[in-house]
């Protein structure tokens, strides 16, 4: 169970860190976010929040209740991304990736609770 948790959480956190990096430094990503209609301050907020979520999810000593807020925020990010890309009529492949990431998020969340269970 711990392996499933750590593999899914590592994949998720790797994506979040890569995404935060591109939100801050990739001209193509920055322009893409503008094309979706989001202002620059929102892009910067998302980058910072993704980095914070990674820290919360990876540090074992952080209470489960706080981790649940990080999961909720990341899930909201993926849902927002799906809606924005759908509205922008982007290729379906982008939303398929987001759906896979939601599945990985759910796997990580479920296994967090399995390894934290008292029995």
UniProtKB/TrEMBL annotation:
Keywords: Membrane, Transmembrane, Transmembrane helix
Membrane topology note: Multi-pass membrane protein
Ranges that cross the membrane: 6-25, 46-63, 69-87, 92-112
Compartments in which it is found: Membrane
UniProt-recorded name of the protein: DoxX family protein
Organism: Aquimarina gracilis
């Amino acid at each position: 169970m711990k392996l499933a948790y750590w593999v899914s959480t590592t994949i998720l956190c790797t994506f979040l860190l890569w995404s935060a990096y591109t939100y801050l430094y990739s001209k193509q990503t920055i322009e893409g976010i503008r094309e979706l209609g989001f202002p620059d301050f929102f892009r910067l907020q998302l980058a910072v929040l993704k980095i914070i979520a990674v820290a919360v999810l990876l540090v074992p000593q952080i209470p489960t209740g706080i981790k649940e807020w990080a999961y909720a925020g990341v899930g909201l990010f993926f849902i927002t991304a799906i809606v924005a890309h759908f509205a922008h009529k982007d290729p379906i492949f982008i939303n398929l990736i987001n759906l896979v990431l939601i599945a990985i998020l759910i796997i990580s969340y479920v296994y967090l609770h399995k390894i934290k269970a008292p029995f």
